[in-house]
């Protein structure tokens, strides 16, 4: 936590200095008020000197005004500083996560990354706000109060020597049990986020399989687990605060008891007793405020640790120190004896992959489910790093290119066609921010999506919900294809992007694509043989992630048993003949 605060608060040193000055003024004014009050009682009320009461009363009003103004300014600048820290930390987390490869995202998990970027940052910024306005004031108030109390009466100050150690023991006992619970709470918040996110993302599947009751029970388990832990923490502090209040009240009673005896003996003026009581209350209240911080700091420390875990994680896929520049954008993609295995896996998903995809040609990749087709094309834009061999784009290893340069060469339609919240035009302009409406309509026409967009009341301005939940699967795929076309990239990758289309729409779309991408390198991953049988080059992957055959549809029917089985299973024996 200290490391996060040191780096995060460094740009705001002058604001912190201003807050500290304001808090110091606030504390000094607060400590001065009981002395003025004692003077009024001892020298004004007791003697009946009205003029002295008015004079000192006016000073008290001035000091009170200074106290109020300093308090308001301290809270204002403290809030600005803590909120700025939260803003900067969220920004740093977001930028770091943006640089993560899929391996790092999988390591933490999306629900945990969301919690760390939101809830954990909020915990830290709230502690910073409390630290600037409470933690700084508490020790100064306590030390100043002790000095002022000793100045008034040393024997009576012995109450402090008893009260503070007892309060410290109570706080320490609670904290030793609370810190592990705080760590557990953050993990259980992650779990709540995960279950909720899965439910919202998969709500259609859940309803289709009538698993709503099961999901409710799964959420109840996670929710009850978090609730139980939170209640344990609540019970601990439910004991602590009354215990501290009892100590505070017993201290006040003891001071009143012994102070009354000294007043009866004539060894202490009554005004000094009221001032002494005020100082004792300030001292113990400062300890109470510090106790509140003890409630927040352990949880914030856990949150800060979780934040630093993300910030300290270096992406495995980074730009080279001196990336290759001025590389021609021809669109040639080449795999040279590529091997890939997921982190921690014993066996590779892909091995011995070698082929070349050239401009003006369509390269298709087929194979059984789970053979590594999507993983293979994910290596081209470096979503994952190869563990053996090399992937070349335009005769340059992708590891020698800047990632932005590499991505600018590729138009990708992922297996899950994700759309962003906004309008149809907003989504299409992810491919080309400067595209005019006429161009967008042309891309939609090629993607066979113009008809259904024209039927929408707002047409290009029609709203699209997050993930494209308000359009059908086929419409979502066609919008994703139009978005990729808008990029006009030299390398076009379609990962099973025609699966939700009927055969007629599929055929029309492929015919239009051939004209639009005549000079581009087109790579298609497909399950349906009808989608890829006219490809210039078909790569057949075996179940173990090796190449079972490369060639045209006709060649593979003669040479590849794996391909023949795929064709037979879909088109029958006559189709494979």
Structural account:
The chain is of the alpha/beta class and 577 residues long. The chain has helices at residues 2-9, 13-45, 50-98, 102-108, 110-135, 137-152, 158-201, 203-208, 212-265, 270-312, 373-378, 403-408, 424-428, 437-446, 450-455, 473-487, 503-516, 529-532, 553-559, 561-575; strands at residues 333-340, 350-357, 362-367, 388-393, 396-397, 410-413, 422-423, 463-464, 491-495, 521-525, 537-541, 547-551. The protein has 20 helices and twelve strands. The strands form three sheets. The chain has a six-stranded mixed sheet with strand order 6-9-10-3-11-12. A four-stranded antiparallel sheet has the order 2-1-4-5, with no helix packed on it. α17 links the parallel β9 (491-495) and β10. The mean pLDDT is 81.
Describe the secondary-structure layout:
Elements: H1 2-9, H2 13-45, H3 50-98, H4 102-108, H5 110-135, H6 137-152, H7 158-201, H8 203-208, H9 212-265, H10 270-312, E1 333-340, E2 350-357, E3 362-367, H11 373-378, E4 388-393, E5 396-397, H12 403-408, E6 410-413, E7 422-423, H13 424-428, H14 437-446, H15 450-455, E8 463-464, H16 473-487, E9 491-495, H17 503-516, E10 521-525, H18 529-532, E11 537-541, E12 547-551, H19 553-559, H20 561-575
